[in-house]
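ESCALATION

Customer reports they have been waiting on this structure for their group meeting. Please prioritize. Original submission:
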Amino acid sequence: MTNLTSYSLVPELQHAYNKFIMKYEMNKYHIPVPVNIPELYLTPNCFIDMLFNDEYNQPDYVYKYIEETNPFAVPRTASSRIQIYPRVSKYLIMDESGTDIFNLQSDDFMMLDALLSYRSDSTSLVVVDTTSTSTLVIDSTSGLAILTINYDNLSTELSKLIYIYLDLKINGNYERYDNMQIISTGGLLETCYEAYVLENYFQFIFQNAPNLMFDMSAYCEDV
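Update from on-call: job pushed to the front of the queue and completed.
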């Protein structure tokens, strides 16, 4: 069974985060840019691409990985990194027979399905708060999806992050997220995705509620 460790290299995450950081605005130049992995080596319908790619246009998503055992199939940009710790480093590739290395839970899959509906057609998803059970209902005929969510009962960090992203994009609700109390607690995927969600919040507030942006001029002395 393939496991995710600090010595694992997940090319889809490496590529997605590289592209994101290159256009990042909120803390530009404060986050090191990871080495990119060419798209030639990526699986186009990876769920990681769906998380980070606003233009994702695949009809589904996959999420399982295995270790690449052929060293000649590893791109040069990744091979040099793996050679630093050759005995423990692993280059992971997508395979339907593989392992759910990110340990995705039922709430994660529900929110990923909702995100897929949104990526396919941003007008096809309705997001509603509830105090009861969270559900996602998709009409197979019309394609309309209704996501009814009890946020406090979501069981994973990733599901919460996807929900507040969708709530922002569909309902314009920017009060759900508190950047003084981050959601991710150290997971690689969740930490990267929270930066993406936070950037979307920054862009939304900058464009729609600039009066809420923190003004540093009052704290700067005249030169």
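Sent to customer with the following note: The chain has a mean pLDDT of 88.
Escalation resolved.
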